[in-house]
Design brief:
Largest interface: A-B, 36 and 31 residues
Largest sheet of chain A: 2 strands, antiparallel
Shape of chain B: elongated
CATH superfamily of chain A: Ferritin, core subunit, four-helix bundle
Strand content of chain A: under 5%
Strand order of the largest sheet of chain B: 6-9-8-7
Order of helices and strands of chain B: HEEEEHEHEEEE
CATH architecture of the largest domain in chain B: 2-Layer Sandwich
Helix content of chain B: 10-25%
Number of helices of chain B: 3
Largest sheet of chain B: 4 strands, mixed
Number of domains of chain B: 2
CATH class of the largest domain in chain B: Alpha Beta
Number of domains of chain A: 1
Helix content of chain A: 55-70%
CATH architecture of chain A: Up-down Bundle
CATH class of chain A: Mainly Alpha
Oligomer: heterodimer
Structural class of chain A: mainly alpha
């Protein structure tokens, strides 16, 4: 059992602890960051104006959560939050692969034939997972992270309630809506296997009580998801697109980085 | 000047610094001031951010610093945001609630359970005959509602409170 660690300086005294903590923080930060980026690409395209306001607000808040986690990394000596968010290469990123997938066919600036069923299913899967993982972190041995998790949970309940409402309404709508949702769920099931994975530092994370165990996370998430989805696939999660927790990513992440870092890369020394 | 006089002076100033997105509602009354430390002519204000995605934090930091440094005896004021305790809407003062209403924003409901539907009375006519138009509003901390009694759209602060349910049973 690890004694509570209350500051970044203290965390830096134990190399193995620090390595596991940073790995966990990158997972949290990169998940929020890429989900918020994909969310931002929906701006102006949601089915109606209230959904647009809601999705934008959720996305802005989620980006704020990513910033909090990147700032915790900054305090641990990883460099400026802006720099870590924008400059890291795909293989250095730890978000789960499913969250980097493009929103549908086309690009934001040209013919964005985005798919709302994908958005609803993905956001629902993400926010149920985020809640489960952050709850598993509220007792973390790293107290600055435990405090951040508690703060994020207070705000995030609104995000989850929103996507849950959409999913339930579409599941209870006509056959077309139900089949579109089900298709996106089946597709997700084949590639969300890396989401609850803790990666190469799993043993150290569990040993140092940074987060609950990977098997508990997975079980809690599955329970949460199957309580909301009418007909969850009766098969284990797959990892068809790879394991983002060990740096395996798709071309979609390259596209995302090229887009969100375009302004940043045009003048890296600019002061904002 | 005694310690107490100085502290009162700083607090009085903090009550005049408005939230940039809620004119007439001070950061003090929103419950954002965690503590004030003073060493001689130096003041350290520790604040609690409201919503973490709030883009106004840097403006608030600048405004608080500038306002406190207006005090003749203050040589320097530093402002820091602390994550140690999460901000909740329970910390909004009575004065804050009154000022929010004047701005057309209802204060958050009391006894709210996170994730549950909620409603508030109209800040203009006081009627409870209102409907939620959008939980998400113009800023992260506000929602959009409609009063069916006086037929005015209005806003409300989203309740942000710790859950009363146990954390191990999330659903």
């Amino acid at each position: 059992m690890t004694q509570p660690i209350t500051s970044a300086d203290q965390a830096q005294e134990n190399v193995a602890y620090l390595r596991a903590l940073k790995e966990l923080l990158y997972q949290l930060a990169d998940d929020d960051f890429i989900i918020a980026f994909r969310g931002s690409e929906w701006l102006g395209l949601a089915p109606h104006i209230e959904a647009d306001v809601a999705f934008s607000s959720i996305t802005q808040n989620t980006m704020g959560h990513a910033v909090m986690f990147y700032e915790l990394l900054e305090a641990l000596g990883e460099g400026k939050a802006d720099k870590i968010a924008h400059e890291r290469l795909p293989h250095e990123r730890r978000n789960a692969v499913y969250f980097e997938r493009q929103n549908g066919d086309g690009q934001y600036w040209e013919e964005p034939y985005y798919d709302w069923a994908l958005a609803v299913v993905r956001q629902l899967l993400y926010d149920t997972f985020k809640k489960v993982k952050l709850e598993a972190i509220t007792n973390s041995s790293y107290k600055p992270l435990a405090a951040a998790a508690e703060k994020v949970l207070l705000e995030q309940s609104y995000h989850l309630a929103y996507w849950r409402m959409w999913l339930e309404q579409l599941q209870n709508a006509n056959a077309d809506a139900r089949s579109r949702i089900q298709q996106r769920i089946e597709e997700a099931w084949s590639c969300i296997g890396d989401v609850p994975v803790l990666g190469e530092e799993k043993d150290a994370m569990e040993h140092y009580a940074l987060v609950s165990s990977e098997s508990d996370l997975k079980a809690a998430w599955l329970r949460a998801v199957t309580a909301i989805i009418d007909t969850p696939p009766n098969r284990p999660f797959g990892q068809e697109l790879g394991n983002g927790r060990i740096g395996e990513h798709t071309a979609d992440l390259h596209q995302a980085i090229d887009t969100f870092a375009e302004v940043y890369n045009s003048d890296r020394k600019a002061v904002w | 000047m005694t310690e107490k006089t100085k502290r009162n002076a700083v607090e009085a100033v903090l009550k005049t610094v408005d939230d940039p997105e809620l004119p007439s509602v001070s950061v003090w009354d929103l419950g954002m001031v965690h503590k004030v430390d003073m060493i001689g002519e130096q003041v350290q204000v520790t604040m609690i951010p409201t919503f973490s995605g709030c883009p106004a934090l840097q403006f608030i930091e600048r405004d608080v610093q500038a306002a406190v440094e207006q005090l003749a005896w203050v040589e320097r004021c530093d402002v820091a945001f602390s994550m140690d305790i999460p901000w909740t809407t329970d910390t909004i003062t009575e004065e804050g609630k009154q000022q929010l209403k004047k701005h057309g924003i209802s204060p958050p409901p009391e006894y709210y359970e996170p994730g549950e539907p909620w409603t508030v009375d109209c800040p203009y006519c006081g009627s409870g005959y209102t409907s939620m138009e959008n939980v998400f509003g113009p800023t992260a901390c506000r929602s959009i509602l409609y009063c069916m009694s006086c037929r005015n759209p209005f806003e409300a602060m989203k309740p942000v409170v710790r859950t009363r349910k146990t954390l191990t049973q999330p659903f």
